[in-house]
UniProtKB/TrEMBL annotation, chain A:
<keyword id="KW-0472">Membrane</keyword>
<protein>
    <recommendedName>
        <fullName>Xylose transport system permease protein XylH</fullName>
    </recommendedName>
</protein>
<feature type="transmembrane region" description="Helical">
    <location>
        <begin position="125"/>
        <end position="147"/>
    </location>
</feature>
<keyword id="KW-1133">Transmembrane helix</keyword>
<feature type="transmembrane region" description="Helical">
    <location>
        <begin position="154"/>
        <end position="173"/>
    </location>
</feature>
<feature type="transmembrane region" description="Helical">
    <location>
        <begin position="260"/>
        <end position="278"/>
    </location>
</feature>
<keyword id="KW-1003">Cell membrane</keyword>
<keyword id="KW-0813">Transport</keyword>
<keyword id="KW-0812">Transmembrane</keyword>
TrEMBL record, chain B:
<feature type="compositionally biased region" description="Polar residues">
    <location>
        <begin position="248"/>
        <end position="257"/>
    </location>
</feature>
<protein>
    <submittedName>
        <fullName>ATP-binding cassette domain-containing protein</fullName>
    </submittedName>
</protein>
<dbReference type="InterPro" id="IPR003439">
    <property type="entry name" value="ABC_transporter-like_ATP-bd"/>
</dbReference>
<feature type="region of interest" description="Disordered">
    <location>
        <begin position="248"/>
        <end position="274"/>
    </location>
</feature>
<dbReference type="InterPro" id="IPR027417">
    <property type="entry name" value="P-loop_NTPase"/>
</dbReference>
<feature type="compositionally biased region" description="Basic and acidic residues">
    <location>
        <begin position="263"/>
        <end position="274"/>
    </location>
</feature>
<dbReference type="InterPro" id="IPR003593">
    <property type="entry name" value="AAA+_ATPase"/>
</dbReference>
<keyword id="KW-0067">ATP-binding</keyword>
<feature type="domain" description="ABC transporter">
    <location>
        <begin position="17"/>
        <end position="252"/>
    </location>
</feature>
Length: 419, 274
């Protein structure tokens, strides 16, 4: 048997393709076939949510042609960003198989704190935002402490937190109950009107495509040099081209109206960053491991408590960030901030996007896709002039469908040996 | 029984790992009582005993998974306290657990490198994959792809992955809790070969097995546990009869009765499997 250091003879099978039972999946056709196999075995990824989105768009568009108008879509992206950031935190905590039910309250408290510190106490806006984020992190570390020290289920501790933090929010807002944030300031402009110029968003799409292409090519080259199988250049170019063209079309369409909001750009940036952390860092790897099999992770020498702590802290901090963005979006910090359906929308977005409630399986993109679905429904129903009662019912129904899809996919993975 | 701890082979140099008076209780259950165990460099210690004798509990204590209720442990002659699995791993104690302790949602490479990932801020998947293949080939593993989740592997394949993982960090001591239980004939032979190879490299090996043939094949000493207590140390050429009565605690037991029934037709030493 040849060792790794020896150069692989030109005809010798690649190291990871030696088993005769393996089918070739390196080219374009192979990639497509691999994708179909994965879906069949219950590894659905983001397929259900993409299908759902197409169905939703088709329905609303046929009822009201304003729905897919570029202007409506730009508004939709503004609205996505606040709860989307919160949903990103939910993805983190779901990855370890825990839950945070207090993200709505934490976001509301952060929004109130931003207003109080900035407007009432005259702090610089950056200081107020930083303060709100730190308080979010502190709340998360309290949950982590309760979980690690007392084994308190996150379901209970965060339910208690939901009430306690809501109380704090009402307390610091005092009798006035709401603070108006000054218009024409950076923060409020960011939440309401700042839009990327057309050339910026187009350039970002091109940059994204080139970065995708280059990293995949470099990866493939490294694998080939090491004697491992790699995707063919054709398949990589094809994938990068398809993604770039699709994104380009979306941006072009949005630029027919105002364009891509900077706030949405921030949200997407956070999603990409989190995706990198989940898939390319040790932290992401052990986070997934703890969600899959906590005891196995512990026996591998992983500091499991630190992993839980990082997930709780990140979740609460992102909830606070979402609260700051919500304050900017509404130009106010009020008692209503973070109440109502914020909590459930954030959790529903992560689950609808394909992050499993059972832990150990999820992706940063699920926050992005999930929140777009939820906001699309909200926006469509608003255009239809339907009351919020109906909106709640329909969003609840969609969440139920998403959880059913998750459970069925999980069962299918078990029967296909991919759980 | 008291004389038995260094019965068999003595004078192999310094014990790399030794336990003195180690006890462990889970609530009211006294799983281990005053256990003494020595593992020397370059030897294979077989740990045998009936189900529930406390073998896995002992291995978990050596792996830092459980903390002993009382007793002391020395590693390379230095007293140590293992406050967690990472402490054991740092000392160079690698373990293949009976339940394998793999993450089913991660692929083979991720499991082999779990907690030891290369370049934490930008995972070096290529190097990890190559090392994973090398380790698996050393075991002649029949695993088609290392990029499939563990959940898609058979029991034997998983066991091979768990064994491969234990070799990753070049340990000084390897603990194998029933490593061949799910393996086929060829793979079992590979694992026994591997145990001999790492023994010859100077590692200490502790192997738990119910298969007396495997035990005889590779062990230098056989340590018997019974109901959580030491019940003698034997050389591998000890008669089956003697081993079985140490394991079961009675000279007249179902195994020996069965053996004597069969002895009438044909004499065979390898019959008994507890
Ligand atoms: N985590 C635990 N909690 C309570 N009792 C345990 C635990 N682990 C093992 N035991 C008990 O300790 C005894 C020894 O178990 P074990 O070490 O698994 O035996 P063996 O591996 O020799 O079959 C058994 O009686 C078992 O019930
Ligand atoms: Mg056992």
């Amino acid at each position: 048997m040849s060792t790794v250091s020896k150069p692989v003879a030109s005809r010798a099978p690649l190291m990871d393709r030696a088993d005769e039972r393996l089918q070739d999946r390196s080219g374009i056709a192979g990639s497509v076939r691999g994708f179909i196999d994965r879906v069949r075995s219950g590894d659905l990824g983001s397929l259900p949510v993409v299908v759902g989105l197409v169905v939703i768009a088709a329905i609303f568009q046929s009822i009201n042609p304003i729905f897919l108008s570029p202007n409506n879509l730009v508004n939709l992206l503004f609205d996505c960003s606040t709860i989307g950031v919160i949903a990103l935190g939910i993805v983190c905590i779901l990855m370890v198989g825990e839950i945070d039910l207090s993200v709505g309250s934490v976001s509301g408290f952060a929004s109130a704190l931003t207003g109080v510190l900035w407007v009432n106490h005259g702090w610089p806006v950056a200081g107020a935002i930083l303060g709100a984020l730190l308080v979010g992190a502190l709340i998360g570390s309290i949950y982590a402490f309760l979980y690690n020290r007392f084994g308190m289920p996150s379901f209970v501790s965060t339910l208690a937190g939901l009430l306690a933090v809501l109380g704090l929010q009402l307390y610091i807002l005092g009798s006035t109950g709401s603070i108006n944030l000054p218009y024409d300031t950076a923060l409020v402009n960011f939440g309401q009107i700042l839009i990327m110029p057309g050339w910026v968003s187009s350039a970002l799409v091109v940059v994204a495509g080139v970065v995708l292409l280059l990293t995949k090519m470099r990866n493939a080259a490294r694998r080939r040099a090491a004697g491992l199988s790699a995707r063919s250049t054709g398949a990589i170019v094809f994938q990068a081209a398809v993604i770039t063209i699709l994104l380009g079309l979306v941006v072009f369409y949005l630029n027919q109206a105002r364009g891509v909001p900077w706030m949405f750009g921030l949200f997407v940036g956070l999603v990409l960053l989190m995706n990198y952390a989940f898939t390319r860092t040790r932290w992401g790897r052990i986070l997934t491991a703890v969600g899959g099999n906590r005891e196995a992770a512990r026996r591998a020498g992983i500091n499991v408590r630190m992993v839980y702590a990082s997930a709780f802290v990140l979740c609460s901090t992102l909830a606070a960030a979402g609260g700051v963005l919500a304050a900017a979006r509404l130009a106010s910090s009020s008692q209503q901030a973070g109440t109502g359906d914020v909590n459930l929308n954030a959790i529903a977005a992560a689950v609808i996007g394909g992050t499993s409630l059972f832990g150990g399986r999820g992706s940063a993109y699920s926050a992005l896709l999930g929140i777009i679905v939820i906001q699309a429904i909200a926006s469509g129903l608003t255009l239809l002039d339907l009351s919020s009662s109906l909106r709640y019912m329909i969003t609840g129904g969609v969440l139920a469908v998403a959880v059913i899809v998750d459970s069925l996919a999980r069962r299918s993975r078990v029967s296909h040996g991919r759980a | 029984m008291a004389n038995a701890f260094d019965g068999g082979i003595v004078g192999r140099g310094e014990a790399v790992l030794s336990l003195r008076n180690v006890s462990k209780n889970f609530g009211a259950v006294q799983a281990l009582t005053d256990i003494e165990l020595d593992v020397y460099k370059g030897e294979v210690v077989a740990l045998v005993g009936d189900n529930g004798a406390g073998k896995s509990t002992l291995v978990k204590i050596l792996a830092g998974v459980h903390q002993p209720s009382s007793g002391t442990m020395t590693f390379d002659g230095v007293p140590v306290v293992l406050d967690g699995p990472s402490a054991a791993l740092k000392l160079g104690i690698a373990t293949v657990f009976q339940d394998l302790a793999l993450c089913e949602n991660l692929d083979v490479v991720a499991n082999i490198y779990l907690g030891q990932e290369l370049s934490p801020m930008a995972l070096d998947e290529v190097s990890m994959e190559i090392r994973a293949w090398t380790l698996l080939r050393e075991l002649s593993a029949r695993i088609p792809s290392v990029r499939e989740p563990i959940a898609s592997l058979s029991g034997g394949q998983r066991q091979t992955v768990a064994i491969a993982r234990s070799l990753l960090l070049d340990p000084k001591v390897i603990l194998l809790d029933e490593p061949t239980a799910a393996l086929g004939v060829a793979q079992t032979a590979e694992v026994l070969n591997l145990i001999e190879r790492v023994r010859d490299r100077g590692l200490g090996v502790v192997m738990i097995s119910h298969n007396m043939e495997d035990v005889r094949a590779v062990a230098d000493r056989v340590v018997v546990l019974r109901l959580g207590k030491n019940n003698g140390v034997f050389t591998p050429d000890t008669s089956n009869q003697e081993l079985v009565s140490a394991i079961t605690g009675a000279s007249d037991n179902s195994v020996s009765r069965r053996a004597s029934r069969r002895a009438g037709t044909e004499h065979s030493a390898g019959e008994a499997h507890p």
